[in-house]
């Protein structure tokens, strides 16, 4: 950037942005630390801090322990200066979350509302979203946007679902939401949204393979610090990889897709009980038949991981609804099965577990507006 051509206003904006980003990264800092680390003049820093505080972006509360001289005031960003709302739409319910500027879910709720492509459904959904915002006392101007994660493939321009056989939502339009909610709206494929959250939580990862173990299986590929979309937004659809042409029928019409073995629904069908009940019983009784069902599940998951790792040589993240049920012993078993008769051995550190359970896609979707807010307007 040419210093000469830069106007005073641009320079001021850049400095303000630098100071804000620095405080954001540090989480807690002091004026002196900003002056030292950004190598800015004390008066420039003071002026920016005053402006940021007046605009409600930062707070100055409390003091650091004294290191001899005067105690330094603690400077932080205001975490809920903006809130992003994330929705995770499923067949029988939707999840709703409020996410702050650090990507933390500060409010979560599950609302029973069976999906149907009707005016009544979208109107009821919008009313619930408004109620959630009111209940949590978020002023409308705080809401940066509403980002919706749904099962199904989204058109490259983000305005519609182009494939949605599970929920019958192939006609879902972004405008179904944006016409009923007075906020910016964004539509995302739920497994890509989940991968966005995993990437946010593991920023050190260049590449990863994400398994979204939700009622229906999903997947995503992270490469070059980004979720890979593909030419037709179809990258990472691991759920329809066929592992047995004579296997059970999948909702897509084919047989033996990974969906029929590794989705939470497949586990529910195999055990004949809800997932929560299955794990309660399994962990309490260690009954042989339940252990066998769980091992069968893990065996198929290991088979998929081992094969997919030959395509993408990267860590693997177990994410979504089933992830919180994975215990240390399960991870060890899974790892041993991945490595059994494998050409290459996977290291323990390469197998990660997400920790947001059923809310993963909604939180991941909400990050869209958080990232948008945090991306400097001038750079
Ligand atoms: Zn299928």
From TrEMBL:
Entry-linked SUPFAM superfamilies: Actin-like ATPase domain, Winged helix' DNA-binding domain
Domain of life: Bacteria
GO biological process, any: D-xylose metabolic process
A Pfam entry, by short name: ROK
Record carries keyword Methyltransferase: no
InterPro entries registered for this protein in UniProt: ATPase_NBD (IPR043129), ROK (IPR000600), WH-like_DNA-bd_sf (IPR036388), WH_DNA-bd_sf (IPR036390)
Record keyword Phosphoprotein present: no
Keywords noted in UniProt: Carbohydrate metabolism, Xylose metabolism
Protein family according to the UniProt entry: Belongs to the ROK (NagC/XylR) family.
Function, as annotated: Transcriptional repressor of xylose-utilizing enzymes.
Identification of the protein by name: ROK family transcriptional regulator
Naturally occurring in which organism (per UniProt): Coprococcus comes
